[in-house]
Amino acid sequence: MSDVLISPPISARQSQVPAPIRLAVLASGKGSNLAAIASAIARGDLNATIQVVIYNNPEAGVVQKAAHYGIPTVLLNHRTFDSREALDQAIIDTVKAYQADWVIMAGWMRRVTDVLINAFPQRVLNIHPSLLPSFPGVRAVEQALAAGTKITGCTVHYVELVVDSGPIIMQAAVPVLPDDTPATLQARIQVQEHQIYPAAIAIAAATS
Ligand code: GRF
């Protein structure tokens, strides 16, 4: 018997590499988290593709960020829908049309309904600029400053019906400095957001 090790054929080796997860990113703002996720993918740190960016605000800077990475964009302007459920159904239709199966809310400033959550069980994620369960809802950075907390941060979590309430996947802490303004604190929180969002997506994918 020879001890020679024979590598499996290429096709067998390839089949051991998990297929990239396919993301749809929902964004309302400037899109720095989209860029962080896209560059993590480009570096090979996250095994995923961004199939589409859905945005609701025609002025959103995320459109330029998506164009930079060659990602298609779809505008779903919430003002043109009769209800939150109707907007969520249009999101579902778009996510499916672009063959994505994870919904990544990256600064999506709309409340979602069971319609969206139930369409992608355990596959809708959000990032929030505080250490949840502290300071849920809008103006989380201002809330932390007003409370006089000395540490805040950011959280990636699964989305449930109650805003900013779902199971936590990953958090990063950020110290509040004595002379912080909402802008300076938010800027330091965003540095951490850009680290943890791609990592949290990878954790969620690995445990799904
Ligand atoms: C982030 O700070 C996120 O925590 C909040 O919205 C902001 C989006 O920023 N939900 P960007 O558009 O990704 O730059």
What key attributes describe this structure?
single chain, Rossmann fold, 7-stranded mixed β-sheet, 7 helices, globular, binds 5-O-phosphono-beta-D-ribofuranosylamine
Walk me through this protein's architecture.
With 208 residues, the chain is an alpha/beta fold. It has one domain (20-206): Formyl transferase, N-terminal domain (Rossmann fold), CATH 3.40.50. It is 38% helix and 21% strand. It is built from seven helices and seven strands. The site of 5-O-phosphono-beta-D-ribofuranosylamine has 14 residues, from α2, β5 and α7. 5-O-phosphono-beta-D-ribofuranosylamine is lined by residues 27, 29-33, 106-107, 127-129, 154, 190, 193.
> How do the strands line up in the largest sheet?
3-2-1-4-5-6-7
Instruction: Provide mean pLDDT, rounded.
Output: 94
State the CATH architecture.
3-Layer(aba) Sandwich
Overall, the morphology is globular
Provide the CATH topology: Rossmann fold
Please indicate the count of domains: 1
The computed structural class is alpha/beta
Total helical segments: 7
| Most strands sheet | 7 strands, mixed
Distinct small-molecule ligands in the complex: 5-O-phosphono-beta-D-ribofuranosylamine
The residue ranges in which pLDDT falls below 50 over 5 or more consecutive positions are: none
The helicity comes to: 25-40%
The CATH homology group name: Formyl transferase, N-terminal domain
Q: If you compute it from the alpha carbons, what radius of gyration comes out, rounded to the nearest whole angstrom?
A: 19 Å
H-E order = HEHEHEHEHEHEEH
Q: What is the number of beta strands?
A: 7
What percentage of the residues does DSSP assign to strands (E)?
15-25%
End-to-end distance, in Å? 42 Å
CATH class category name: Alpha Beta
